[in-house]
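Hi W.,

Here's what went into the run:
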Amino acid sequence: MALIVADSSALILLSKTGLLRDCCAVYRVVAPASVIAEVASKELIRKFPDARVIADLLNENRIRVKNPGKSRFRFPASLHRGEKDALLLAWDTAGSVLATDDGKAIKAAKWIGISYIVTPKIVVEIARSGHISRERARDGIERLGVLGRYSPDIIAHALIQLSEVKQ
Amino acid sequence: MTKLTTIRLPEDLVEEIDEVVRNGNLERSSYLREILKKGFLLDKQERLFQQYAAGEYSLSELSRELKMDPWTLLDALRSKHLHLNVRLEDFLDSSGLST
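Here's what came out:
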């Protein structure tokens, strides 16, 4: 079972697609405490129902909180604490994949040499696992275009990849 | 605390401002300070969004600069018709997941 280290963008977008719970059922998901503070603080849980989903999964231990060791990198560019912690945790955790939807974090992941995945691809992978139908995955990817602000070219490519998934 | 600053404005703009001040029974200096601040904040926001789109800011950095939580920020991107700063090649290069 693959291990995903999620940053705040990935947790938010998966929650907005309604597929975060499915993701946690198929993969092991961990996130640093700083990321959790950014997306599911008490105030945010009150304000956003999707933040409540993250909190529920944390309570159920389906999302685990794990912090990175001490920083050994001088990142090529400035990053916020949560993004930095997620990158370092992915580096620390052998065989893990960083889930992020941030261009700058992706650039840093490429620079460090760690595997990363973006949310539309995660949705395709959940469908590939057989855990959700292609129709549900399609709905999730389309939501990523509208609510998740993914560009139309990426959404189009994700839908093409989804259409190639055998179920 | 305030600091005195002198600027030259187009005559027609000054006339329009004075009309609003008269009609609204406002204090001219306070009103000018208020609209300058509003305009400045809007401009700052626009510039930060542009920097985000260019990949100079991450989503969380933008969130901090705008003093906006990431959930609200995504809604703001939507209302401004902006996209995430993830490029197609980032999507194509991203890895798969084994189950």
